[in-house]
Every structure is written in C-alpha cells, then in structure tokens.
Amino acid sequence: MAPAATPLHDLEAVLADRLAVRPADSYSLTLLTDPERAQRKIMEEAFELCLELGREPVDVERAASEAADVLFHIVAGLVGAGVTVDAVLSELSARRGGRTAERR
What we know:
By secondary structure, the protein is an all-alpha fold. α2 packs across α3 and α2 crosses α4.
C-alpha cells in the first residue's frame, strides 16, 4: 500500500510540474531554477517566522501563515535540488529511532 499523500507531497507534485512545464512568469520556477534565490527566501521566511514566534502573545494564525511560507520555500528548494519530501520524511523517521546521533 502506498503512503498517504500529504499537503507537502501535493506541493512537491505541483512544483515538479512547474519545473517540467516551465510556465512563463512563474515565481515558483524562479525558486526551482535559482538555488541562491531559494536559499535567500528560505532564510527570509524563517526569520519572519522567528519574529512571529517571539511575539507575546504569539498570534497563532500569523505564526501558522509564516510557517506555511517557510515550508513552501523549503519544498521549492528541495525540488529544485532533486531532494524528495519522502527523503526528508524518511530522515525524520530514522531520527526517531536514534540513527542520526552518530552523524552529528
């Protein structure tokens, strides 16, 4: 049985399609084909999330929105680099089993 698709898998599929089709004027395509731009956007969005998480009290909706921006840009960077969401999820699963302690 195949694992259930997640919103991250759905996003990955949309971004892979953008990379294959290469639509004109696609913001996503610029992230997929320009690793430096993707890196800058990941850092920018992560910083914005950190600012939201540092507010007292935390605005839950705003923090979730910023986290979604971070995840979007991370997945775009991963797709552009040929790294799958499943590879990331597998790594997270392996960490639950304690496998990565020797890699740090």
